[in-house]
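Worked example

This section walks through a single chain of length 285. The input is the sequence exactly as stored; nothing has been trimmed or padded.
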Amino acid sequence: MSDEKTTKIGSLFIVATPIGNLEDITLRAIRILKEVELIAAEDTRRTRKLLNAHGINTPLTSLYDQNEAKKSGLLIAKMKAGFDVAYVSDAGTPGISDPGYLLIRQSLAEGIRVVPVPGPSAVVAAISISGLPMDSFVFSGFLPAKATKRRQLLADCRDEKRTMIFYESPNRLAAALNDIRDILADPEVVVVREMTKVFEEVIRGSAGKVKDALAGRTVKGEITLIVAGRGKAAPATADDDDLAERIATLLENPNLSRRDIADQIAAETGLPRQKVYREVVKTGG
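Given that input, the structure is written out below as tokens.
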């Protein structure tokens, strides 16, 4: 791309790559990766497989969390000398719970043009098939590994009306679903596992039911977890038996007051809040 290495500053191309299926790459991404002088990659071994699949022979160098601060300066020096550089993470769009942020910030500070080459994103792919509202959503990256911090984050989300999206480790998924059930009043969730890969799986239902469905299984692979916002679960019916069952379920949650329960059921069903509150008091004794 850059012929006048002594006069032209190069560009940084932020290239989205497949999250699983190697066919999920754009024609433009393939062209850019062939034309730049250097590709920086989170993991050169994984990226080499992608490049080999599409006949790309561009030189590779690594840039990952542990060396990003140091390596960014070296890449910026190359771009200021006229080289075009592409950055790719292991999967999806760089910087989204992946390295790339420091490189982008430092490049911009040095007056280097940063060019997006859009493509796959696990966040967008997962919510597109979730069946939950997608007109407004919030992505919060990985849930905290420590239980106390995870529960605090979820407690802060109690009044969140937007659909929430998290990444989660398969080893912590059951614990996360348990906390979501208890703290967020058993909302509707969607677990998307191994998206676009051979063993892709989508599990939908309340947090408690999904947790039960996974009980006894060894869950593997990358997990995207989508959680309905407050009042955004699948509408409940106004049938008296269903209403009583829903109230009884929520009353088991010690984190919810009667007012909280009335607010949530009214939002779910469209029933008058005062009527629901009377039923909550009646059921709760």
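What to look for: The chain is about 40% helix and 20% strand.
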